[in-house]
């Protein structure tokens, strides 16, 4: 019986500040920052904002919405992606920007989407049969840009397993 070792790797871009991004990416991240500032996070104190860029240029925002009955709340990424799917059900998503800030400390490292959000975004990549660029940052510091959600969720579960 043979064993085959396989390595999965990916490349990403790291930017030092918002000013280093393209104008479109900066606008997308700035929309996510504005959304973050209006998050409802009284329990965790961890505000997250997301902005989705649609193929037609529309920007859809979302932020985390907590609830006293954990885990009834919803993450910013899923709020934004589900809103995009509701408003533009057949339109591809080009990119998603995510940013996080805490009421208790300064978030200095990029805050990537949680596992549930990665799975939800992966569903949209599979559905549109194309990549969704992902940008994420903390409150300050570097910004990471990935070419596809699949980069940070390799071997994702998708509808092909259900057929």
UniProtKB/TrEMBL annotation:
Q: What is its EC number?
A: 3.5.4.5
* Annotated transmembrane regions: none
Instruction: Give one Pfam family, short name only.
Output: dCMP_cyt_deam_1
Q: Which InterPro entries match?
A: APOBEC/CMP_deaminase_Zn-bd, CMP_dCMP_dom, Cyt/Deoxycyt_deaminase, Cytidine_deaminase-like
Ranges for domain CMP/dCMP-type deaminase: 23-160
Q: What keywords are assigned to this protein?
A: Hydrolase, Metal-binding, Zinc
User: GO annotations under biological process?
Assistant: nucleobase-containing small molecule metabolic process; pyrimidine-containing compound metabolic process
Q: Which domain of life is it from?
A: Bacteria
Gene Ontology CC: one annotated term:
cytosol
Tagged with keyword Hydrolase: yes
Q: Which GO terms describe its molecular function?
A: cytidine deaminase activity; identical protein binding; zinc ion binding
What enzyme category does the UniProt record give? Answer: hydrolase
Name the family the entry cites: Belongs to the cytidine and deoxycytidylate deaminase family.
UniProt-recorded name of the protein:
Cytidine deaminase
């Amino acid at each position: 019986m043979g064993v085959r070792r396989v390595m999965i790797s990916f490349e990403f871009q790291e930017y030092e500040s918002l000013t280093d991004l393209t104008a479109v990416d900066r606008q997308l991240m700035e929309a996510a920052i504005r959304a973050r500032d209006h998050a409802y996070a009284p329990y965790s104190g961890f505000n997250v904002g997301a902005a989705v860029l649609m193929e037609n240029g529309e920007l859809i925002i979302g932020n985390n919405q907590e609830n006293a009955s954990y885990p009834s709340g919803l993450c910013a990424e899923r709020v934004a992606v589900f809103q995009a799917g509701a408003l533009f059900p057949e339109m591809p998503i080009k990119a998603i920007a995510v940013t996080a800030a805490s009421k208790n400390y300064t978030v200095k490292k990029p805050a990537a989407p949680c596992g549930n959000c990665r799975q939800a975004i992966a569903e949209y990549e599979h559905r549109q049969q194309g990549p969704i660029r992902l940008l994420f940052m903390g409150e300050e510091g570097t910004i990471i840009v990935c070419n596809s959600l699949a980069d940070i969720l390799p071997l994702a579960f998708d509808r092909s397993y259900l057929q």
